[in-house]
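The following record pairs a protein chain with its ligand, nicotinamide-adenine-dinucleotide.
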Amino acid sequence: MIRLKKPNVVILGAGYGGLMTTVRLQKMVGVNEANITLVNKNDYHYESTWLHEASAGTLHHDRVRYPIADVIDRSKVNFVKDTVVKVVPEENRVILENGELTYDYLVVALGFESETFGIKGLKEYAFSIANVNAARQIREHIEYQFATYNTEEEKRDERLTIVVGGAGFTGIEFLGELVNRVPELCREYDVDPHKVRIICVEAAPTALPGFDPELVEYAVNLLERKGVEFKIGTAIKECTPEGIIVAKGDEVEEIKAGTVVWAAGVRGSHVIDESGFEAMRGRVKVDPFLRAPGYENVFIVGDCSLIINEETNRPYPPTAQIAMQQGEVCAKNLAVLIRQQGELQPFKPDIKGTVCSLGHDDAIGVVFGKKVWGSKASFMKKMVDNRALYLIGGPSLVMKKGKFNFL
Ligand code: FAD
Ligand code: NAD
């Protein structure tokens, strides 16, 4: 079949999945083969995997983002800065806040949002580590609490209490940054460190449920030594303007806190639901080629997709690692469809491991099946972070944004 016109490829979201799809596709196809449009609500990409650092204030938010224009080939990719409202897959249309696009092939890569499971007050009173704006707000809010503490005649110690909901990877990585940041804040604002409380509330019977127990113990011991109080087997039931209500069995407790950060769950973008795709918490169970069921021209990658681990028969946890690997396969499949040549490639994740930072100088992880911790794990985490930059922007991006504080 001969094409009468160049197909329109529209990619929604410039996170790990969307940007990887774009930079790989722009290398594979020529200007005359397809019109490629990338839509993102900001003109920058942020490293979601570094947001805990920006939120704690251990890394400036400008360090975790870079202009999309730096990594796309503008002769091949048309960038549209806009917010996606919904997709109308039956009509091959995308509704944006400020316009509309039509497509022949679509890639939905709109990433994650915080999932509050309908828990009362969380949306109103808790923060979540969701994007650059949210990270900046968390950092500013904590700093404001410290700055305000000494200005009040009647001191309210709860101003200096920070609650982290969830001891999953996000919660633990954020705690690792906080324990390094709080001593700096105490010095800066003349606050007695003994007045500060950092409390982590985790509903499961352990921190980092499902991860290697020895490494979990290492992380919890380190964080406890640096001042974190863990409330394990305890669920957040409500968030109020004053703090949180938690329950452990029948015991209910109120914890007053100036800052509550909800790091206890994510879901895929609400745009997935708005668009009528069949999904679970904004995640679409994609076919082996990463397409949405019922729509052969719609690919879904990253945290909006759901893929099953056949060994465990459970969904893979959504990660940047998987999002980037999906981006590569998605680009190859798009090239096949654009050229109408070759065969679609099924996606199979190649999980190299998991490394969880505990501040800039410590970490735990399982890499290629081997346990690592301490400075070796921390080095590996920085290499993983740098690798993500390399895969999207090559050596120049690593030089600009990479982490080289190895000592
Ligand atoms: P995202 O990276 O979330 O990108 C989505 C993009 O779409 C963003 O640019 C966003 O601005 C844009 N967007 C969203 N909605 C709209 C809209 N309506 N209109 C237009 N644009 C929109 N995973 C790992 O593998 N390793 C780690 O070490 C790791 N650490 C993490 C640390 C933290 C603190 C967090 C929160 C997550 C971490 N993850 C990690 C998970 C990882 O960040 C996600 O799995 C990954 O970001 C998903 O990539 P994505 O491309 O699907 O979406
Ligand atoms: P998560 O779902 O992995 O962990 C959430 C935690 O919150 C769980 O331990 C859960 O038991 C707990 N929880 C749920 N409801 C609760 C409640 N009401 N009260 C108290 N605790 C509650 O979410 P996450 O940590 O944000 O991670 C999201 C995804 O990002 C995961 O796939 C994760 O693997 C990935 N991630 C990876 C890394 C890394 O590789 N270094 C870092 C961060 C995130």
